[in-house]
Amino acid sequence: GDGMGFFAIGGDFGQFGATLSYGTTEEADAVTLAGDVEIGAASTLVAWVNSTDIETDVTAATQTRTDGTSFGINYEYDLGGGVTFVAGYVNNAADDDDQQVQAGLHFSF
Known about the structure:
The chain is mainly β. Helix content is 0%, strand content 69%. The protein has strands spanning 4-13, 16-25, 28-39, 43-54, 68-80, 83-91, 99-107. Strands 1-2-3-4-5-6-7 form a seven-stranded antiparallel sheet, with no helix packed on it. It is globular and about 45 Å long. 0% of the residues are buried.
């Protein structure tokens, strides 16, 4: 029964792109700014920053508060045939020690 709202605006400007989004629920409000840049013919670099504010009076005792600022950076390389190599880094707002690195393949058919 939680109401939800979302708004985003973005655009591509040649080899650059940017998106600004806002999401809201009864428990939290979040704003995200993301930007990307094409590097050469097959590579893309994406960076984003997110600020989330969680209402303390509606957060259940069993939930972890994850408000604050998170950020990340992602590298994508198109291998062709619907396969993309992806690697990235995320620093989570919930915990200063919660930093994640990921790498893998994305398949699109």
